[in-house]
Amino acid sequence: MCGIVAYIGPKQAYPILIKGLKRLEYRGYDSAGIALMNGDMRVYKKQGKVADLENSLINEDVEGNIGMGHTRWATHGVPNNVNAHPHKSQNGELAVIHNGIIENYMTLKEGLVLRGHTFESDTDTEVLIHLIEDVMNHTNLSLQDAVRAALAQVVGAYAIVILSKNHPEHLIAARKGSPLVVGIGEEEGEFFLASDATPIVEYTRQVIYLNDGEIAIVDNGELSVRTIDNIIQTPYIHELEMNLEQLEKGGYEHFMLKEIYEQPKSILDSFRGRIDPKETEFHMRSIFEYEEKLRNIKRLLLIGCGTSWHAGLVGEYLFEEYARIPVEVEYASEFRYRNPVIYSDDLVIAISQSGETADTLAAMELAKSSGATVFGVCNVVGSSIPRMSHAGAYTHAGPEIGVASTKAFTAQVTVLAIMAMAVAKLKGNMRSDRLRTLMYELESIPAKVEKSLKLNDQIVEIAAKYKDARNFLYLGRGYNFPVALEGALKLKEISYIHAEGYPAAEMKHGPIALIDEEMPVVVVATNSAHYEKVISNIQEVKARKGKIIAVVTEGDTKVKEMADYVIEVPETDESLSPLINTIPLQLLSYHIAVMRGCNVDQPRNLAKSVTVE
Ligand code: G6P
After folding, report:
1. Is the separation of the CB atoms in 479 and 598 below 8 Å?
2. Cβ-contact 604, 21 below 8 angstroms
3. Which one of 45, 448, 492, 608 is the catalytic residue?
4. What is the pLDDT of residues 214-266, one digit of tens each?
5. What's the pTM value of the predicted model, to 2 decimals?
6. How far apart are CA 443 and CA 439, in angstroms?
7. 304 CA closest ligand 1 atom index
8. Distance from C-alpha of 561 to C-alpha of 567, rounded to nearest angstrom
9. Which among 320, 418, 317 is positioned nearest to 377, based on CA atoms?
């Protein structure tokens, strides 16, 4: 939530900042702003998207080799020009951009008001920059020492960048709880700062991921990293693996559509090199290193939020069926505040696309403090969750930019499936011929997903028919109950149509009351142990005149007779069917949203990386 980017070096900062902000816009798009230094310090900010800011600056002076930019997801204060970042200090000499929440800002503000400070905005961020100025006014501290002293008074989460009119040779950044990446430019004295590596990759591959409690200071062309207690750090320089094409739309109208279509490849990338069906071997460092522990785990806790939580629900079915381990799936936000019972022989797997979700991080911290082993299943390389985990596996889906998650979900399910198979093998809970069959089946999934994507034209037709519906119901059983939840979430997120996902059999305990001839009901009815039962559920909907859109296995004849539309997908093992059945539901949401004129990639009120609780 909130994206920040900054530059210092020989190039013009403005084009780097604007382009960087566009890449970070998935983190929030309530307002955007920049500060540029060229002798003086100029701050421009505007409610709305980065493009609105850019348009408003056509005739402005945007010269300068030092600058910073911010794209906002509002927490404190409505989205307007005044609450947009950067925020200035009382004397206008300092400016800050911030991602996170200063929890004790009210107390700090009261003190500052007593000392004569006046505030323009309703934000917590403005309080922070006034506090730094206040420390400087009342001490002889240098800017960087004043930043440290001020941060010591702050409770909350932040990634910040600070510019000072009087110290143009300085760029100061700090992080606690919100991500911050430093890019080391190819030219002398050139540095980039950003919430993630996407604004940086075009200019350099060398990055440092700041740790919590660290401050990065660029001073006269030299970078140093210190702790908040002023202890010098020797940061590890990472080589970025991301490439630029992954950050472009590549001819697709939207990132979401591109990402849906990337799934044959992203699923392949998520298992490539990790399974060897012939030998029934697994090549995953986390599994290898924690072999003994995994063999003895008594319980698995899967933790996530949003779509990642849905992947966790699929994981529950996978681990219970394959490895015969009891599993609990937890919303990170509930888990962290529930005083949960956690044992030291529990394995906790935190699932997250961004690797930065504040609630998931807090839940992991809690699990770690209780002695549990914590794995991460994450997409963004170098993000906080993998760094906080004991071990884990990247999903390797590549950058996901559409706010509604698509390819990250199928990659998460793939990685969880491999882990479940590997643990099943370790625990001796699955026959090797079944294991081998499943591994070969997993290898066949990308081609089957490719085939499912060919259903697009038919799905456009269905979308046109139901795009004006006010409600949708999604039903599924077993492995496809989470698929129904995910289908409904996708529709809600991007088309703003109310949608509910339900276990098909639960429908009769409430949602059935909603069914009439206006209600489209999407039913996942592919071959499974519950196939006949799902057919009974379809009959129940039909009897109430609901409209049935059914996802079925190719060649199905029974459902065809009852449904208004059938979407035929390739057959697979039931346990891997979420990887295929999700595809038409993603496409359905996408096309409905496009037909309704919605901003598919940046749906209202949402953000992709939720760094506040
Ligand atoms: C936000 C996003 C969702 C995502 C959820 C969890 O709500 O809009 O798409 O599923 O956060 O994010 P994570 O990065 O932890 O998977």
Report:
1. no
2. no
3. 608
4. 999 999 999 999 999 999 999 999 999 888 888 888 889 999 999 999 999 99
5. 0.87
6. 6
7. 15
8. 13
9. 418
